[in-house]
Amino acid sequence: MTARSEAAGGAPASTGPDLPAPATDPVAIHDERVLPISLARRLLGRPELGSVVGAVAVFLFFAVVADGFLRAASLGTVLYAASTIGIMAVPVALLMIGGEFDLSAGVLVTSAALVSSMFSYQMTANVWVGVGVSLLVTLAIGAFNGTLLSRTRLPSFIITLGTFLMLTGLNLGFTKLIGGTVSTKSIADMEGFPSARAVFASTLTVGGVGIKVTVLWWLALVVIASWILLRTRAGNWIFAVGGDKEAARAVGVPVARTKTGLYMGVGVGAWLSGQHLLFSYDVVQSGEGVGNELIYIIAAVIGGCLITGGHGSAVGAAVGALIFGVTSKGIVFAEWNPEWFTFFLGAMLLLATLLNAWVRKRAEATT
Fold first, then answer.
1. pLDDT in tens, the chain (367 residues)
2. What is 205-256 written as a DSSP string?
3. Three-state SS sequence of 257-306
4. Cα 91 to Cα 137: distance, rounded to the nearest angstrom
5. Counting Cβ atoms within 10 Å, is residue 51 exposed (0-12), middle (13-18) or buried (19+)?
6. b/e string for 22-44 if b means 16 or more Cβ within 10 A?
7. Which of 141, 155, 131 is nearest to 104 (CA)?
8. Closest C-alpha to 309, from 93, 34, 17, 41
9. CB 341 within 8 A of CB 328
10. What angle do CA 331, 298, 182 make, to 5 degrees?
């Protein structure tokens, strides 16, 4: 109690230090951290907003120009095409949020399929043994990329380009060395094949429409990746190392472990895609997968992931993959020359990048 209040006959007060009154403090009132955020501002701040707008526009475009595009069977085909890209685009997006690339992702899918097939065939083992060995191999390659990146401090572009070239040579060399041709032997009659096919390459019937099981794997990966990014400490580490690696290291974030984990996540996606490839066609061509890494990266960029890292979402990458699926199948249903696909691909990449930049500027201007 102050001398002035005692003289005025006020009520006794605490003898401790006077606390500020938050409700009347103008600084607290104007603190943006405690101000309510409108729904519009929240939407503008979402990285996948631009890709959602683009997906709706592309979908409506082909719904108008392509006969039969809106049939249930056609939409099932679109979802299947999107899922085969999305299974890889989601972990690649997480890696990009962490500030790195993986140019070996496309070839790694083929490597995963080749290892499963050749190990099972040569060892005359249950195909599930080959599937397990393939998972270990893809995880090891992811750990190799992450460890080499952390130890050497070389750009991920250089390291994964080297991995890409090595895997391309190994895929072709081992396949010809063991089988004498550029493709593997069929494992369709081997033990465990039916159950493995049911897990990785089956078709579910929903409302009379065939839905490939890869759609379920794709959605599961989106949920898991979103939970990791938004609800776990590892998600904070991913954004931190992608935004400013040195600052993250200074506050105790395990940068090397985080990046290695992200590369191993790409390995899991490649393993899953590779098993689908193998159990869909029984055999694998050793030269497949080259160039697909760019599709995964483009899907992530269209979905709002920044090339510089620190920004993006798993949902955005999934939407980017959906745009790929809609465009690739929409061109077929419209009976256009498929060669135009690359033109649409480049146009979508530019438009999505410009739209994402515009949305981000609008979001920053309103905060």
1. 444 444 444 444 444 444 444 445 555 555 555 566 666 667 666 777 778 888 888 899 889 988 888 888 899 999 999 999 999 999 999 999 999 989 999 999 999 999 999 999 988 889 999 999 999 999 999 999 999 999 998 999 999 999 999 999 999 999 999 888 899 989 999 999 999 999 999 999 888 888 999 999 999 999 999 999 999 999 999 999 998 889 999 999 999 999 999 999 999 999 999 999 999 998 999 888 888 998 999 899 888 888 888 888 999 999 989 988 888 888 888 888 777 777 877 787 777 677 766 766 765 665 5
2. EETTEEEEHHHHHHHHHHHHHHHHHHHSHHHHHHHHHHH-HHHHHHTT--HH
3. HHHHHHHHHHHHHHHHHHHHHHHHHCCCECCCCCCHHHHHHHHHHHCCCC
4. 17
5. buried
6. eeeeeeeeeeeeeeeeeeeeeeb
7. 141
8. 93
9. yes
10. 80
Residue for token pair 């689908």: 276
Tokens of 21: 């009154």
